[in-house]
Amino acid sequence: MTGIGPRERNEGNGTDDRAVSEVIAFVLVFAIIIGSVGILYMTGFQSMTDFQEGEQMRNAERAMSALGENLNDIQRNSGIQERSGELSLRGGTVSTTDGGTELNISVLEDNVTLGSVTYQQDSSLIAYEGGGVFRGVEGEPDQSVVLDRPRLTCNTESKTAVISLINISSDGDERSIGGDDTVEVTIVENKTEVNTESVEDVNITVADDSSSYRNGWSRALNQSGWEWDDDNDTGTCDDAETVTVRIVEAKVEF
Q: Where are the transmembrane segments (predicted)?
């Protein structure tokens, strides 16, 4: 007769090892999943942030270009002395200043220091200056580009040059406003000076360290028919027999 008693434990059959292996595998898989989710979250979040900031600046470019188009009416039409436009801040800051790019125009006795209307978001800048629109990076003038060129025409066929600029003057009352609201920007003409001369050629020099948009100005001149000299920061209109310089001084309010 066979008795029924306690079974002996079979040592070394691998059951415990398999259990430990399964736990380790589970922990590793779980760690990989959590790590992957974390990496995707961080990189995805940064990509979304970069995309949002880039789109915001592109919107600001379009808004400033539209604003500049409105404000330039006082330059194009002598019968218009005031124009307004809107600019959505979207967390940025808009400001006016007298101290912008300084231009030496060879047919004028004094340099022209252009004021500007500038939209800033972090270190990115978009400025309405001289009747043009420029984009730049704070403290990096060589990274700037021109979005809308000022009226700087060099026509070698007709042997004429036209320099027409809007000079923003705040009369010492520089303004700045930030937030998320939409701001109405109004430009009012103070005076206009026109000077026409007979010349052999005419030069426009961007004064050293005066401009946050030096590279933008060089491109604007080059694209308008001027021969640009990088060494001297000077644009030249060769063989021009007549040059007309028109400076519209205006004040901006918002």
A: 23-42
